[in-house]
Amino acid sequence: MPFLNLSTNVNVEGVDTSAILNEATSTVADLIGKPEAYVMIVLNGSVPIAFGGTEEPAAYGELVSIGGLNPSVNKKLSAAISAILEAKLSVSPSRFFLKFYDTKGSNFGWNGTTF
Length: 115
What we know:
One of its GO terms (molecular function) is phenylpyruvate tautomerase activity. The protein is 30% helix and 25% strand.
């Protein structure tokens, strides 16, 4: 059930968002070790964001997972998601924050129940 919520000030109209979602899905699943069928990605574009006093392309993300996260995996995820955002949306890795949450299954609802 990994969930990656990405927000960026980049306008994503006209951008192949499916490519971003597909690449992020496979990357998260692979690095966390969960099936792609349980990975959810949300991409919010045109969000007003100032970073370092400028509105140059920037992004913020939060990744929640029931297990699978640790310092080594988090570092790989940060690098991989940064690379996707840089390649697809021209967001420099230095203008992207990614916060990680490792949660218990009882804190996540799905299919009318919890994990």
